[in-house]
Amino acid sequence: MFSWRKTKLQAVSLHQSRLTSLFRGMLPLDAIEVTVTISQASLQHGLAGNTHLYKAGNPIVLSTLRSSTTFHVWSVHRTEAFSTISGSILLQARDPAKLNEEIQIAVDEHRCDEVWRLFVKHMQMEGFPRKSVVNNVLVCFAESLDSNWLQKGYSLVEQAYEESKQNLLEKEPLVYLSLALAKSGMAVPASTILRKLVETEEYPHVSSWSAVLAHMSLEGSGSYLSAELVLEIGYLFQNNRVDPRKKSNASLLAMKPNTQALNIALAGCLLFGTTRKAEQLLDMIPKIGVKADANLLVIMAHIYERNGRREELRKLQRHIDEACNLNDSQFWQFYNCLLMCHLKFGDLQSASKMVLEMLRRGKVARNSLGAAILGFDTADDDRLNLKKVSGKVSEVKEHDDPDIKVGSIHSMIPYDEFSRDRKFLKLEAEAKDILDALLAKLHVQVKLITSKHGVLQPTEEIYVKLAKAFLESGKMKELAEFLLKAEHEDSPVSSDNSMLVNVINACISLGMLDQAHDLLDEMRMAGVRTGSLVYSLLLKAYCKTNRTREVTSLLRDAQKAGIQLDSSCYEALIQSQVIQNDTHGALNVFKEMKEAKIPRGGNQQFEKLLKGCEGNAEAGLMSKLLREIREGQSLDAGVHDWNNVIHFFSKKGLMQDAEKALTRMRSLGHSPNAQTFHSMVTGYAAIGSKYTEVTELWGEMKSIAAATSVMRFDQELLDAVLYTFVRGGFFSRANEVVEMMEKKNMFVDKYKYRMLFLKYHKTAYKGKAPKVQSESQLKKREAGLIFKKWLGLS
């Protein structure tokens, strides 16, 4: 025990540096660290208010001490508050090496709270502990899968990089922590760790980072980040930049995106609606030399369909037909996409031919006892030819609940197993399970086509969409021909329950009486006899709208067809005559009804059916058609055509041609949408220095969005606009985009924009503002500082 002089020490404050200087002269020469514990009594006298660091029982590191020695200070004066406080302060020496051991013991016992307490104490003493201890702490926090400890582990990684001490961090623990963060739904820190590893050339193996990617892709912002990561990593390998013959490139080549990584990122984009970002990934595939498997082919079909790339779908069709390892689900997903694309472009002829060919092949299969499992082979004219699928058809798993439930999501592989698995086979299997679950959700979205006994068959949904499209285009004759042919190929049903009658009934209930009458005429001229119900319904509808001429024409048609109307029709006719003050005509109708001996209380079948439809009851094809026409959006095929033209020119960098196409599109009355502007903005960004043009487009987008509902800002469009503005230094506009994205609760990849800002504007807005500057310069500087602050760089 060292003895102290009974002296009073003047302390302006109790901060660490000040106390160190006060006590340094009184400590032994071999001192290396001292901690201070303030007694509860001192706290009661007001010492706690001096600084937030001092709490009862909390150690405060002052300087250093080699030996374990205890000291007593008789009194301390605090002059800061103009008062004197007396109390005993206990100073106790700590050995850093012993503290490292204590941290390791707490890690081994998985006592995260104790690990954190000792780690903080060591950081206060002399900074980061030993390298092995730091990495073991990260592993301990990762194994806990507790969001609190994961966040603390990530904060340690951030601090290490900020202090340029990343050499303390090993690759495997960082990947392990990233995986734990991704599993806990913390996609941003998980992706940041992977980006830091790539930045410092500590390249993670593709099987490990694709597992992180898989867990990130289970939610919206994570799926967007997954696509960004694949694009960033894939950029390193484009156009054979990495020489595979050099041994020094082995670790880099092991990171190269493979088919599974791409499938995961693309499936995530599809499920969360970022299909234009997905198309950027597709454009990258041939540049990095990744081979497509069956899953990738089907995913590509979904992306092309969502983005309206019908020509790309037709090119893909050859690969689908030649692939021998596609199962039923993958096969009908492709043809569902092709059908959807035909509908988008208003190509009703091709769509109806596909449906009829499916029905014909289904009929052949049903009538053929020895029929093999059949598939489709579609030629350029969209004829579907049968082919035998070699091998056993993969069984399609039905997923009643499309939510992804993978057991390994909520558990971590023990780190010992993780570190021993040098090829990351377990992580690869885990990623594959999640990919299968993502693909199962895509399968659930297929609604136009199903499969029976290995043969593709249309669902009621495709009849509904085709009927609506024919009706909107006014092609009554073609609709009737299609439905009659479909009835002929499909299983026979009663005339009053046929598809055509259901469509006519739907038209009547929606007030589309002329279309209903036209379809009925087509049905009659084709020699198809129907019951009295459809005539009764149409006649009553005409009576309600006082369309006397049409009523007379319909009665004549009914008589020619030998249709006997029920009493409700006569009652409607009588009421109509009375309303028009034609009492003589009303009496004639009443006499005719009496002579025909028609009982009162006519057929109420349709009324019950209609009430069922209105009450959301299941009423088959008619109910679905009613809902589709009332709620479904009308398609403008011209928009898709022009979007493809503009996309082609923008992709090739021919922006003058793209501008002309956009002008022509407007002149023809087609309103540009988010996809149109996205193609233009990304085209300008690719060639660079076209920031003024993007600013003009930004103004046009806002005016269209304010005036109509056609233009809807989405994450992909705003992200592309923001990237261009930040790249060009248009921070006032960039702040507008950020404000809009945050208002719409859209995810913004701050890391990407932080790196972009540091790359092109690192020295901007540093130091004091110039004394002389114009108002525009002042506003520009202010906008730049606001954006810089938003990035966290101020």
TrEMBL record:
Lineage per the UniProt record: Eukaryota, Viridiplantae, Streptophyta, Embryophyta, Tracheophyta
Gene3D superfamilies named in the record: Tetratricopeptide repeat domain (1.25.40.10)
PPR repeats (start-end): 496-530, 531-565, 638-672
TM ranges: none
Sequence ranges assigned to domain At1g68980-like TPR repeats in this UniProt record: 92-218
Homology family: Belongs to the PPR family. P subfamily.
Keywords associated with the record: Repeat
Name under which the protein is recorded: At1g68980-like TPR repeats domain-containing protein
Domain of life: Eukaryota
